[in-house]
Amino acid sequence: VQLVESGGGLVQTGGSLRLSCAASGLTFSRYAMAWFRQVPGKEREFVARITYLGIYADSVKDRFTISRDTAKNTVSLQMNSLKPEDTAVYYCAADPNLTTDRRGAYSYVYWGQGTQVTVSS
Predict the structure, then answer these.
(1) Ranges in the chain, pLDDT < 50
(2) SS3 of 8, please?
(3) Distances in Å between the alpha carbon of 39 and those of 63, 86, 98?
(4) 35: closest CA among 47, 44, 17?
(5) Within 10 A of 89 (CB to CB), how many other CB atoms are there?
(6) Is 70 exposed, middle or buried (0-12, 13-18, 19+ CB in 10 A)?
(7) Which of 1, 35, 61, 73 is deepest in the core (most CB within 10 A)?
(8) Cα dihedral sign, 106-48-19-86
(9) CA distance 49 to 42
(10) Residue-wise pLDDT tens digits, 9-39
(11) 116 near 7, Cβ under 8 Å?
(12) Rounded-to-integer distance, Cα 104 and Cα 80, Å
């Protein structure tokens, strides 16, 4: 199984970025997909998850949108109104349990390598 993220970069406060994650080696429709983020010295933090509907951390609700394309085996994260506190390495993850609300990193069995997002003030 491979999860490969792309789309990270440097953006100014208030700007937008779109992250993508390409999945291979798994039956994509049978997995819930999620985005997490991590800054040095802190635990990996839940950002958003999608099975049929998206759920979000309170810190990103109304600014970020998660979506999935089953035909292309991709999951995306549209990030708008970015803030310096959104700066982190963002990871794509897959969970074989399709229960709607699972936010712990321990629930996810496959992970990408991460992509850096930096928001300048």
Answers:
(1) none
(2) coil
(3) 20, 9, 27
(4) 47
(5) 18
(6) exposed
(7) 35
(8) negative
(9) 20
(10) 999 999 999 999 999 999 999 999 999 999 9
(11) no
(12) 24
